[in-house]
Request: fold
Amino acid sequence: MSAFRRPVFFRNIRFASFAAPRRPRHPMLRIVLGVVGVGLLLALLFLGLFVGVAMLAAGMLWRLWSQRGKPITRSARAGSIDGTYRVVGKAQLPLAR
Reply:
């Protein structure tokens, strides 16, 4: 006998049917609730996408606003890295004996 079938776990019989999710038996009601569920899912997806795009746009505007008035620095040779270097010769293995 399972531990969950004991009467200890069914003390509140009034709420047992409320807590158990059951699909409606009427086929038209099933279809309507399915369409409502899919519509709710699409609405939440659209809302989340809209909020995400709005947050990205607000962040970009904030960054542009904070850089307002600062000069844009450009290097003398754009796209190149300045530095010192040395040529390393080809590695040679020691003579094997």
About this structure: Residues 8 and 73 are 75 Å apart (CA to CA). The radius of gyration is 34 Å. The chain is about 45% helix and 0% strand.
